[in-house]
Amino acid sequence: MTVESTKSGNSGLIFSSGAGYDMTLSIGVNPALHLARPTRKKFEDALPTVRNWCALRDERLPEILTQVAPQWAMWSAVSNLHPERSRHTIELGLCALQFVMLVTQRLKHGLACPRPIEYDPTLQPMILTPAYGAFPGGHAAEAVMMARLIKSLSGQEDPNVSPPKTNDLLDQLERLTLRVAENRVVAGLHFPVDSAAGYVLGDLLASYFL
After folding, report:
1. What is the rounded distance in angstroms from the CA atom of residue 77 to the CA atom of residue 90?
2. Is the Cβ–Cβ distance between 187 and 172 less than 8 Å?
3. φ and ψ at 206, to 5 degrees?
4. Backbone dihedral region of 68: left (phi > 0), alpha (psi from -120 to 50 degrees) or beta?
5. Per-residue tens of pLDDT for the chain, all 210 residues
6. How is residue 137 annotated by DSSP?
7. Rounded CA gap, 89 and 150, in Å?
8. What letter does residue 83 receive in the DSSP assignment?
9. At what angle do helices 40-53 and 192-209 cross, to 10 degrees?
10. In 10 A of CB 190, how many CB atoms?
11. Cα separation of 12 and 52, whole Å?
């Protein structure tokens, strides 16, 4: 049996949940993404990786605190945006982040994946663990959305711009996207597989939004 619900009457996004812990996100009548909850063993096998990455906490703490939602300060630093000069661009970015957050929360609720702390209390996350599930990773999805949005607004995703004016921006956006997701594992809030799902979701939602 499939249960369907729309997040917004005009969004065109449909969430379908099956009998198990799996969900499909469709755009109109076309299925666009299917996510199934990873097994308990997969999460347990990833615990050593999460523990190892905890060694990076001292050097990553300032970044992790800056990247707490709505993670705007770091993207402004890369794209040189200022609220007095680029207020409409910033507003668009915040709308994009809110859009990703709403979609991700719906998927998290349906898949109900535990956080690392629920498997190993010795991890002691650096910041308060959110009350909702871990999979897919929201910060990873939002990071991909922001990177794609900035690329598009700067003309870097325009097929008519060839070659791009510079690759420095693209390279930095890619590095920052990976860093944001990685830092959530370092903080003890996520497993790597959460970020992997977040990357795919963020890329899909960015294409839809743009």
Report:
1. 12
2. no
3. -65, -45
4. beta
5. 233 444 444 468 999 987 778 999 999 889 999 999 999 999 999 999 999 999 999 999 998 998 887 777 788 888 888 888 888 998 999 999 999 999 999 999 999 999 999 999 999 999 999 999 999 999 999 999 999 999 988 876 555 555 555 578 888 899 999 999 999 999 999 999 999 999 999 999 999 999
6. -
7. 9
8. T
9. 100
10. 29
11. 41
In the block, tokens 């629920």 appear at: 118
User: Measured between alpha carbons, how far is residue 85 from residues 75, 81, 88, 144, 173 in Å?
Assistant: 15, 7, 9, 24, 21
Check: pTM over 0.85? Answer yes or no: yes
Residue positions counted in the chain? 210
Could you tell me the two tokens for 202? 């963020």
Q: How many CB atoms lie within 10 A of CB 81?
A: 17
Question: How many helices and strands, by DSSP H and E, does the chain display?
Answer: 7, 4
146 strand-pairing partners: none
Q: How many Å from the N-terminal Cα to the C-terminal Cα in the chain?
A: 33
φ, ψ of residue 65 in degrees (nearest 5): -70, -35
How far, CA to CA in Å, does 130 sit from each of 23, 117, 133, 134? 21, 11, 8, 9
Cα separation, 62 vs 68, in Å, equals 10
Taking every pair of Cα atoms in the chain, the longest distance, rounded to a whole number of angstroms, is: 52
Region label for 172, one of left (φ > 0), alpha (ψ between -120 and 50) or beta (otherwise):
alpha
Amino acid identity of residue 85, one-letter, is R
For strands 30-36 and 3-6, give the pairing: unpaired
